[in-house]
Each structure stands twice: as C-alpha cells, then as structure tokens.
Amino acid sequence: AAVPAGxxxxxxxxxxxxxxxxLHGAPLxxxxxxxxxxxxxxxxxxxxxxxxGDVAVLQRIVCDTFQLxxxxxLLLVRQDLGIVQAPLEQCHSRTFQAEACFSQIxxxxxxxxxxxxxxxxxxPEHTSLVETLQLDAANLSSNIQQQMEDLGLATVTYPxxxxxxxxxxxxxFHHQVGGFFILANFQRFLETAYRALRHLTCL
Length: 203
Description:
Order of helices and strands: HHHHHHH
Structural class: mainly alpha
CATH class: Mainly Alpha
Number of helices: 7
Radius of gyration: 18 Å
Strand content: under 5%
CATH topology: Growth Hormone, Chain: A
Low-confidence stretches: 1-27
Distance between the termini: 31 Å
Mean pLDDT: 81
Number of strands: 0
C-alpha cells in the first residue's frame, strides 16, 4: 500500500531532524564492540553532559544580568557581529565517518575554548566558572585527539571558518550580545556532539 503523503513528510522530517539515526558507511564495525572504545564514549558522554550544564548556567547568568534571553530578539544584532557556529555537519551526514566527526568535535571545542575569552571578559565575577568551562573544553578535545590516535583513526583538520581572532565589539551591548551567541552556539554544538557520541554507543 502507498504511504500517505502526510506520513511520508513526517518520516522525512524525523530523518532530517535526527540524521544520526540513518547513518551509512560508518567504519565502526570493528570498533563498536571494543570495550575501550565504548568506555571512551560513555566517559565523554558524561563529560559532554557536564559541559552542557555549565554552559546552561552561564546562559542563565547572561539572561539575568543583561536581560538577553531570547535569540529571536537579537538576530538583527547578530548579523553585525561575525560570530559563526563551529561546523559539525560530518557528525550527522548520511556518509558519517567516525574520523571526520571526531575531528570536527575536537576542532570545534578548541574554537569555543578561544571564543569563551569574550564571555570571561563579560562576566568577571564568574571567572571561575568560565575558566572551568574552558578547561573542560580543552580536556574533552584532548581526550578525543588521544582516543583517535589510540584507535588508529586518521585525524582530519577542518578549516574553522570565521574562528580566527575574537571579534572586536563596537560597544558594550554588542559584547553582551556576542557573549550570548557564543554560549547559544556552543550549547547547540554540544547537543549535536552529544547525540553523535550517543549514537555510536548504540552501534
């Protein structure tokens, strides 16, 4: 029987929103049963969850301190700031490759480690939390790099567009909005990374 168009649209929508469920060509058959690999994945899932929690705390602080809470209200300002999302398309493409996904997670964590300096300047009274977040991002990036080497996975370096020096903010308000979007982008990045790691535990 033919699938009704509405059902087909829903199925396609679900696949697009959760592309890690339809990964093909993953060279992981020999890794998925590896105990060390599974231990690595579970440890880094927990680590990623902790980092997500700390980012959420900082997002609440930015909301409470500067009344910057809703992304849609700030999109026009965002266009002037030159803040981009670190790419993670290799973690949810249909031609998923562990090497490429891990490499993008590693590179993105390094980029956010650097851009959190802008948040540190913005919230001097929360230096300890921001510095802990930077340290955790650096440690997770190093963990992934080390595990890739241990597993013999090829490391790929992706160009991180727009992730050079921190943007120069033309006003205090732009700095505040910049901090807001750095945290919002980092949270989205972590959510995608978390789902990709979780998917790998199920292979």
